[in-house]
Design goal:
483 residues, alpha+beta, 47% helix, elongated
Length: 483
C-alpha cells in the first residue's frame, strides 16, 4: 500500500507542480495585504473629527458632482469618528472621502492595489482574462484538490515506521552538511511533515470556496439547509455569493474591518448614531448610554480575503455562501455602468440600519442590483471573533420596514461555519499570527514543489543510468552459422 501511495503522490505532484507553485508563491505575496494596504493608505483613511458630519445622500451627491461618470456600488462609513468614508466603484477601485465635508481624499494606493490584484488573480484563476477565467478556475481548483491529496498522502508516507530516535530525527529535523539528493530528501520530509496539517486546512477551505458540491457538503454535514441562491448585488444577500463568482475582491465594500453607511445629516440622526457625540468623546466627554463604540477604524479595506496561502476563491453564485461572507466584492463585480440607483430616503434607511444592532462598528449600504424597492446593508459588530462576521439587513426602500434581518447568532450552523472558511484559509481567523503561519506554510509548499521535482528528476536520471548499464552489460547473441 505504501508503494501505491508513493507513486500516486509522485504522479499527482508532477502533474500539478507548476500550478501549485504559482498558488503557493502568490499566497505568500498576498499574505499581508490588509496590513500593507492599510499602511500605504493611512493618510487617506483617517480624518480630523468635526462637530457635524454629512449624511450618505449628501456624500454621494457631492462625490457624483465631482465624478459624474463614476457609478458607486457601495458606501462604507465607520463608527470611529476619525475614520474616512469609503465609496466603492466596482472594478474601478475605491475612493476615500472626508465624511465631514465630502472632499475626496484619494483613490487608494493604486500601485499597491494593482500589485495585489494581479497576484490575487494569478492565485485564483492564473490571471486569465474574460471567458478564460473559468478555465483558470478549473486548473487551480483541480490542482488545489491534488495539493490536498499530496498533503494527506505525504503525511502517510513521511510518518516514521518505527519511533526510534534515528527515524524521528530523519523526518522532523533538518540535517546539516548534506547536499544533493540527501538534502532534497531531508528538506522534503521535514518541511512536508510540519506544514502538512496547515496545508490540509488551507486546501480544504479552498475546496469549499472552489466547488459547489464541497460548499453544499458543509451544510449537509451540519444538518443546515442550503441558503437560497441570491441575485448578484442586491436584494437579500445579493453580494454574498454572486459577487464572489467573478472573483471579486473585498475592495468595494467588504472592508476587512466591517462597513458602515450613514444617512441624512449625521448630526441629525437619532440616538446612538451621531458623529457629533463621538467627536465629543474624542475630546474627553463621557460616552452616553447606547452610543456606538468607536472601535472599528478601517482595518485593511480592500484586502482580498485572503491573505495568504493556496486559495480557490471565487465561490459560485448560488452555492449558498452566507451573505455576510462576501459582502460586495467590488473588484470582481460588474462595473455597474448605468446601474447606480440611490434611494430617495437613504438617510432615514441608514438611521434605521444603525439602530438595528446596538454595538456596531461599521455599516455598508449597497447600490444597484436586486429589487429596486429593497436596500441591503451589511453591519459589523464590535468584539467579534470572526473577522468576516457580518449581520445582514434588508429594508424596504419605500417604507423602511425590515424585509430580512439575519444577525450572525441567528444564522444556521452551516452559515456560521461557512463564514469561517475564508478566515481559516487566509489565517486571519487567528490575526497576524495566523496570517504568518499561513504564509510560512505556503512558502513551505513552494519548497516542497522544488524538492519534489528535484527528487523526481534524480530518480528518473538514476533509472536512465541503470537502464543504460543494463543494456551495455547484456550478452550479445551471435547469429547461428548456416550449414
Amino acid at each position: 500500500m505504501r508503494k501505491v501511495f508513493f507513486w500516486l503522490h509522485l504522479t499527482a505532484g508532477l502533474v500539478a507542480a507548476v500550478v501549485i507553485l504559482i498558488m503557493c508563491v502568490t499566497g505568500v505575496l498576498i499574505a499581508f495585504e490588509p496590513q500593507i494596504t492599510a499602511n500605504a493608505e493611512r493618510s487617506m483613511r483617517t480624518v480630523t473629527p468635526s462637530p457635524t458630519s454629512l449624511g450618505a445622500t449628501e456624500l454621494i451627491t457631492r462625490f457624483r458632482a465631482e465624478r459624474p461618470s463614476a457609478n458607486p456600488t457601495a458606501l462604507t462609513l465607520y463608527a470611529d469618528p476619525k475614520a474616512s468614508a469609503m465609496i466603492a466603484l466596482g472594478r474601478d477601485g475605491v475612493v476615500y472621502v472626508n465624511p465631514y465635508d465630502g472632499k475626496i481624499l484619494g483613490e487608494g494606493a493604486k500601485g499597491v492595489r494593482s500589485f495585489f490584484r494581479f497576484n490575487t488573480e494569478l492565485h485564483r484563476w492564473l490571471a486569465m482574462k474574460g471567458e478564460g477565467r473559468e478555465t483558470g478556475r478549473i486548473f487551480t481548483g483541480a490542482c488545489n484538490a491534488a495539493f490536498l491529496f499530496l498533503a494527506i498522502s505525504g503525511l502517510y508516507l513521511w510518518w516514521p515506521r518505527h519511533w526510534t530516535r534515528r527515524h524521528f530525527l530523519a523526518v522532523m529535523t533538518f540535517r546539516r552538511r548534506i547536499a544533493g539528493r540527501a538534502r532534497d530528501y531531508n528538506w522534503h520530509n521535514v518541511i512536508g511533515f510540519w506544514t502538512s496539517p496547515i496545508l490540509i486546512v488551507l486546501t480544504l477551505t479552498a475546496m469549499v470556496m472552489s466547488y459547489r458540491w464541497a460548499n453544499n457538503l458543509l451544510y449537509s454535514m451540519t444538518g443546515s439547509p442550503l441558503p437560497a441562491a441570491r441575485a448578484e448585488g442586491g436584494g437579500p444577500g445579493g453580494a454574498g455569493a454572486g459577487a464572489g463568482r467573478e472573483g471579486g475582491r473585498a475592495e468595494s465594500a467588504r472592508a476587512e474591518g466591517g462597513q458602515r453607511v450613514e444617512g441624512g445629516q449625521r448630526g441629525e440622526r437619532p440616538e446612538g448614531g451621531q458623529r457629533r457625540e463621538r467627536a465629543a468623546r474624542e475630546e474627553g466627554a463621557p460616552r452616553g448610554e447606547g452610543t456606538p463604540r468607536g472601535e472599528g477604524a478601517p482595518r485593511g479595506e480592500g484586502a482580498p480575503r485572503g491573505e495568504g496561502a493556496p486559495r480557490g476563491e471565487g465561490t459560485q453564485r448560488g452555492e449558498g455562501a452566507p451573505r455576510g461572507e462576501g459582502t460586495p466584492r467590488g473588484e470582481g463585480a460588474p462595473r455597474g455602468e448605468g446601474q447606480f440607483r440611490m434611494p430617495r430616503n437613504l438617510d432615514a434607511l441608514v438611521a434605521r440600519a444603525e439602530t438595528q444592532l446596538g454595538d456596531w462598528t461599521a455599516v455598508t449600504v449597497r447600490f444597484g442590483g436586486g429589487r429596486p424597492s429593497n436596500v441591503s446593508f451589511s453591519i459589523a459588530q464590535a468584539d467579534q471573533a470572526n473577522p468576516n462576521q457580518r449581520a445582514n439587513l434588508t429594508l424596504d426602500g419605500r417604507t423602511g420596514d425590515v424585509v430580512e434581518w439575519q444577525p450572525y447568532d441567528k444564522m444556521s450552523r452551516g452559515q456560521q461555519l461557512r463564514m469561517w472558511v475564508r478566515p481559516l484559509h487566509t489565517g486571519t481567523a487567528a490575526g497576524f499570527a495566523g496570517q504568518l503561519v499561513a504564509a510560512v506554510a505556503s512558502l513551505g509548499g513552494a519548497v516542497l514543489v522544488w524538492t519534489g521535482i528535484s527528487l523526481a528528476l534524480r530518480r528518473f536520471a538514476s533509472w536512465l543510468r541503470r537502464r543504460k548499464k543494463k543494456t551495455e552489460t547484456a550478452p550479445v547473441l551471435e547469429p547461428a552459422e548456416q550449414s
